[in-house]
């Protein structure tokens, strides 16, 4: 994709969209980056929601994608999205590697009201977060919101990623665990692990989910996000273990142009 129009240029904003400016980019892994966007008049959001981004090229061509919000709602005009580069994608490689700071992008949102964690509603109810790959992003927003609020709701996070190089936010997750306030986390690898790893590379098993998650008797709130295959497999295991389907909230992504 060619470089989109700049702020102040010939940029026609469509109804329901507003202009945002890329103010910073942070590398999260070899194939992912967090984009910091300034969105004037941002109305705020809940952890777990997402936004739609639309890029417009100089020739008028547009491309639109949805990305989960990674940032904590904090009453400012700045939001963050973490984008995972899709090898054959049209948009994600540009956003991760080439989208210039200072450029404009259209934003629509926040979007979604089902896949959110509300500490006021769910105070004290254990939370289980299950992430496949970049499905960690909205779950991390929940963990960050918990930390910012000083909330001590018991959280357990299980991340499934291909290799150690694919991990998102590993240092931050380790710091959350080190706080000792009821946040626990485990990461499993499905493709390759180090020689010192206690577990070989494989997908999450039913016995591991039962051991590392919350027992269904506690009626935890469960959030599952990741590729369609991961979400469907984990959801089936949870229901088979006795979790109430009404307490299992899912969000999935699949091939869509990247």
Automatic annotation (TrEMBL):
<dbReference type="InterPro" id="IPR039261">
    <property type="entry name" value="FNR_nucleotide-bd"/>
</dbReference>
<keyword id="KW-0001">2Fe-2S</keyword>
<dbReference type="InterPro" id="IPR050415">
    <property type="entry name" value="MRET"/>
</dbReference>
<keyword id="KW-0411">Iron-sulfur</keyword>
<dbReference type="Pfam" id="PF00175">
    <property type="entry name" value="NAD_binding_1"/>
</dbReference>
<protein>
    <submittedName>
        <fullName>Oxidoreductase</fullName>
    </submittedName>
</protein>
<keyword id="KW-0479">Metal-binding</keyword>
<dbReference type="GO" id="GO:0051537">
    <property type="term" value="F:2 iron, 2 sulfur cluster binding"/>
</dbReference>
<dbReference type="InterPro" id="IPR017927">
    <property type="entry name" value="FAD-bd_FR_type"/>
</dbReference>
<dbReference type="InterPro" id="IPR017938">
    <property type="entry name" value="Riboflavin_synthase-like_b-brl"/>
</dbReference>
<dbReference type="InterPro" id="IPR008333">
    <property type="entry name" value="Cbr1-like_FAD-bd_dom"/>
</dbReference>
<dbReference type="InterPro" id="IPR001709">
    <property type="entry name" value="Flavoprot_Pyr_Nucl_cyt_Rdtase"/>
</dbReference>
<dbReference type="InterPro" id="IPR001433">
    <property type="entry name" value="OxRdtase_FAD/NAD-bd"/>
</dbReference>
<keyword id="KW-0408">Iron</keyword>
<feature type="domain" description="FAD-binding FR-type">
    <location>
        <begin position="15"/>
        <end position="117"/>
    </location>
</feature>
<dbReference type="GO" id="GO:0016491">
    <property type="term" value="F:oxidoreductase activity"/>
</dbReference>
<dbReference type="Pfam" id="PF00970">
    <property type="entry name" value="FAD_binding_6"/>
</dbReference>
């Amino acid at each position: 994709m060619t470089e989109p129009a700049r702020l102040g240029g010939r940029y026609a904003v469509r109804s329901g969209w507003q202009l945002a400016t890329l103010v910073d980019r942070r590398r999260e892994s070899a194939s992912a980056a967090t984009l910091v966007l300034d969105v004037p008049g941002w109305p705020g959001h809940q952890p777990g929601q997402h936004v739609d981004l639309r890029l417009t090229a100089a020739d008028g061509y547009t491309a639109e994608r949805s990305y989960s919000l990674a940032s904590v709602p904090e009453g400012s005009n700045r939001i963050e999205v973490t984008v995972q580069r899709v090898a054959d994608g049209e948009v994600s490689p540009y956003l991760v590697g080439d989208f210039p700071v200072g450029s404009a992008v259209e934003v629509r949102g926040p979007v979604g009201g089902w896949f959110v964690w509300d500490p006021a509603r769910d105070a004290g109810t254990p939370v289980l977060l299950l992430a496949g790959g970049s499905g960690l992003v909205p779950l991390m927003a929940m963990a960050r919101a918990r930390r910012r609020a000083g909330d001590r709701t018991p959280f357990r996070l299980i991340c499934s990623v291909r290799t150690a190089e694919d991990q998102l936010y590993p240092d931050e997750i380790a710091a959350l665990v080190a706080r000792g306030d009821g946040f626990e986390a485990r990461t499993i690898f499905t493709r390759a692990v180090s020689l010192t790893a206690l577990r070989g590379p494989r997908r999450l098993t039913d016995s591991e989910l039962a051991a590392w998650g919350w027992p269904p008797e506690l009626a935890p709130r469960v959030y599952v996000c990741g590729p369609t295959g991961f979400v469907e497999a984990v959801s089936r295991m949870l229901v088979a273990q006795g979790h109430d389907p009404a307490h299992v909230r899912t969000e999935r992504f699949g091939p869509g142009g990247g």
